Amino acid sequence: MDGSTLPAVAEELLREIRKACRESSHGTDTFSSRLKFIFGPSAVPALDLVDQRSVTRVRSPSGRTLYQVLGSSGKLYTCYSSCHFCTCPAFGFSVLQKSESLLCKHILAAYLSQAMGTCQELSVSEEQLSNILLEPEEDEG
Q1: List of E strands, 1-141
Q2: Residue ranges of the SWIM-type domain (predicted)?
Q3: Rounded to whole angstroms, how far apart are CA atoms 40 and 37?
Q4: Strands 65-70 and 76-80, bridge-based pairing
Q5: Do residues 10 and 102 touch, judged by C-beta distance below 8 A?
Q6: How far is residue 64 CA from its own chain's centroid?
Q7: I want to staple 18 with a disulfide (CB 3.0 to 4.6 A). Which of 26, 29, 50, 115 is the partner?
């Protein structure tokens, strides 16, 4: 397992959710207790973001992909599934500094939306994707 993968139990849960959503109309209700157990306090807010269809998968012609998640505060966060990273302050604090959480609610929402097939889709040019990647972060406060 390389450094860019989630723990096996988390990967397996996301695979089970993907399979269940493809095979039936069931949502994540049957998985909610396991989601809460594995992802802790990020699970319920992430499910809310999925329900609100707040996740957009952004793709360029070369196949590069990132996710943009409209947070509950109205701010747009960029998530990179290839390295499990989000631009939100909670990711930097709870995930990277404190190691209290596996993921923030935004990147978990991106994974869940992808698994459930509920992502909004946006195709952009290579230049537009580069502009998204190079956008400076707004200062908080």
Answers
A1: 55-59, 65-70, 76-80, 85-86, 120-123
A2: 77-115
A3: 6
A4: antiparallel
A5: yes
A6: 16
A7: 115
Spans of all domains in the chain = 8-131
Q: How far does Cα 32 stand from its chain's mean position? A: 16
Which has more confidence, 126 or 31? 126
**Token code pair at residue 129:** 């994707």
At residue 45, the 3 state secondary structure works out as: helix
Q: 26 by DSSP, 3-state: which?
A: coil
pLDDT in tens, 25-57: 555 567 888 888 888 888 999 999 999 999 999
Integer Cα distance of 122 and 138 in angstroms: 23
pLDDT of the residue at 98: 84
pLDDT at 120: 95
Give this prediction's pTM: 0.80
| Residue 34, Cβ density class (10 Å: 0-12 exposed, 13-18 middle, ≥19 buried) | middle
Q: With contact defined as beta carbons under 8 Å apart, do 94 and 85 qualify?
A: no
